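call fold(seq) -> tokens
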Amino acid sequence: MGLPSPTRSKILAENVYEGMFILDANRFGRDAEAVSGQISEMIQDAGGKMLVSRLWQERRLAYPIGGQRKGAYWLAYFRLDTNRLAAIRRQCRLTDTILRVLFLKVDPRIVDALVAHAQVGSSDGSERKEEADDQGAKDTTAEKAEPVAVADKADDREA
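ret:
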């Protein structure tokens, strides 16, 4: 058994991540494409590949973050080298439109199912309603889950 090839080790170093971004709802409402485009741009600049990215929902936050009471929750699945995740976290802290962020490493066995589910959620409402009617209520429990505000920034406390 020889040493792993450079190509194989590169593939093993890349993981799929789920990113939940809480965006400033005011800025998102004014220019949704530009604000959400910043996320894709950050990931691509870090050498990652966006698999799917969509608005999850807009809602009132559990507590104010940086003076904001409402946030737009943006869901993204992307493939990225593990060593580059810290650079994206830093960039998120520096970007004014991103209030909070949470990254989760996705188990490779369920990547395809999660990405497919996120793509269905990003289609227009008529297709989504038809699929929900066909599948019944068993698959809609994930969509009914209440999101929670996640903390990744420790510098939001005002002195």
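Helices lie at 6-13, 25-30, 32-45, 85-94, 111-122, 125-135, 141-144.
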